[in-house]
Design brief:
flat; 44% helix; Four Helix Bundle (Hemerythrin (Met), subunit A); alpha/beta; 3 domains; Gyrase A, domain 2; 441 residues
């Protein structure tokens, strides 16, 4: 998305029709564009004012609450105007037609407002990504993680580490430049490398929480596996509260992998229903079983189902995490029966489902850990942090080598951190990142 001196506009609220819609205008001609809509009596900065929007024939289009944010104190860092209008398609279309008639005013591209905020130093790259995640968040934990990014807390952590590296390099350079003088005490080198050692521990701990952020952002993947007709599809329907999967008494009804997203205590959980595992001769069913095995192997958690009439079976699937055993069809179980080797559930009556949900949430918390904020939220962050950590470790391992070489490792580490926040050569990333945004943001 190239930088532009144009003034841009877009609908920044939800789809039409709506009770109220927000139109945003940003750029050097934003205030003049506003005058073209409401006349010369523009409101005072950051004070809402009720104004009448008229066309070129002075016919009334709508009444709007108008807010003016002069540069640089606006979201984009430019002159910015927001109009709160009635959210009909006719009203919004009429206002857009008036804006289109003005020289140097055009519709915004996806993410262009946020791109201008980045270009004008109002946000760094981590904050931009956090804003994108906040707009797309569906669960409470996703919202919390996104707020930590978009509010600048994560950027503050990375900037603090970069500052520490810069200070350490400055002290090393001082030792190099004034090695023959008494201005630099002998203890400086020891202090520098002690500080670098502390930073190495902080980076390692921070990266250890990376998998937790991926689970929060992308979801915790749970696979339902077991023999045909043990109740996998019924359980998926019961947990989701709707008929996602077809349920019949015919073994092998489920041939492909079905999925549904759940919100469990603020965590996004993606549930996968798979084909029943058995020795099959049908080509289509064999393919479904192969996909079921692949899904289970890549899942974060496997729920191994068997019904009350079946004996426990060894789950022959390679997975990094222990499975939870479920005994289904509890509604058919005699009251005197005793089940000790799994969670007893009934998709029909709902018996045991709350216990199952709690067990899934416990597994999520084990993976995420106690900290659910200030974690590397994207694979891009993790990659750069791993580079940073590697350079820091090389600097620590290079004891006995020239100080200039060790200082260079610290410079490379600081550069990797700078690429996370966008302080260093990230132009090739910007188009990809801002394409995630909707029009009007």
């Amino acid at each position: 998305m190239p930088q532009s001196s144009d003034t841009i506009y877009a609908l920044s609220s939800g789809s039409l029709p709506a009770g109220v819609s927000v139109i945003r205008i940003s750029g050097p001609n934003a205030i003049e564009a506003l005058r073209g809509l409401i006349g010369d009596h523009v409101p005072a900065p950051r004070h809402s004012s009720l104004k009448t929007i008229r066309d070129r024939n002075s016919d009334v289009i709508d009444q709007a609450l108008v807010l003016l944010f002069p540069a640089p104190n606006s979201f984009t860092g430019e002159d910015c105007v927001e109009l709160q209008v009635h959210g009909s398609r006719a009203v919004v279309s009429a206002i857009f037609n008036l804006l289109d008639q003005r020289q140097g005013v055009r519709p915004a591209e996806a993410g262009e407002f946020s791109r201008r905020a980045f270009d004008n130093g109002k946000m760094d790259l981590v904050e931009v990504e956090g804003l994108a995640d906040l707009l797309q968040s569906e669960t409470e934990m996703q919202r919390r993680l996104a707020v930590e990014q978009s509010s600048g807390h994560l950027s503050g952590l990375y900037d603090g580490w970069a500052s520490q590296l810069t200070r350490c390099r400055a002290l090393i350079e001082a030792e190099l430049d004034f090695a023959d003088e008494d201005d630099v005490p002998d203890s400086v080198a020891a202090q520098v490398w002690a500080k670098v050692g502390e930073l190495e521990k902080d980076l390692s701990s921070h990266l250890a929480h990376g998998s937790g952020s991926e689970i929060i952002r992308d979801g915790f993947k749970v696979a339902l596996v077991g023999a045909p007709n043990v109740g996998k599809s019924s359980l998926m329907n019961a947990l989701s509260g709707r008929d996602v999967a077809i349920v019949t008494d015919v073994a092998g009804t489920t041939r492909d992998v079905l999925s549904v997203d759940l919100d469990l205590n603020g965590y996004l959980v993606t549930l996968f229903d798979t084909a029943g595992l058995r020795d099959a001769t049908d080509v289509v069913e064999r393919e479904g079983i192969r996909r079921a095995q692949m899904t289970a192997q890549s899942a974060d958690l496997v729920l191994h189902l068997r019904d009350i009439d079946s004996s426990p079976q060894q789950l022959d699937i390679q997975n990094n995490f222990e499975a939870i055993s479920l005994v289904t069809k509890a509604d058919l179980l005699p009251q005197s029966a005793n089940i000790e080797d799994g969670i007893l559930i009934s998709a029909k009556t709902g018996y045991g489902l709350e216990l199952l949900k709690a067990a899934i949430c416990d597994r999520i918390k084990q993976r995420v850990g106690a900290a659910t904020t200030l974690m590397p939220a994207r694979s891009r962050h993790k990659k750069r942090l791993e580079e940073t950590l590697e350079y820091v470790r090389e600097a620590l391992k290079s004891e006995g080598m020239e100080l200039a070489i060790r200082s260079e490792y610290l410079r490379l580490a600081a550069t990797s951190l700078g690429r996370i926040t966008g302080r260093v050569d990230v132009e090739d990333l910007l188009g990809v990142i801002f394409s995630e945004f909707c029009i009007g943001k």
